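Entry:
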Amino acid sequence: MKKVDDYIKEKIKKDPDFKSRYDLIVQKVEIAKKIIEYRIEHNLSQARLAKEMGVTQQYISKIEEGEFSNLDTVEDILHHIGCRLKIEVVPKAHSLKMHPQIA
């Protein structure tokens, strides 16, 4: 695993935008893990959790694969399983100055 970590660190040094993309992927994986963990602990299928939440089994599957964009539904599911969604907006490392129109 050391080689993968070294590769990621090197890639971040070369491409600052890579870090934000990588961080987003890591966060999506954490969301997926929480939902899967909950289902396993409560012996629930994707279909059963979907029924409880009023979404489709395919939607639960997509979330567990890290493919989601509707944060409201993800937040509802996380709330249902005893978690909450925390979103943080931070400036890019290479553009710490605020845009003049926004400041």
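Residues 2-80 form a domain with the 434 Repressor (Amino-terminal Domain) fold (CATH 1.10.260.40).
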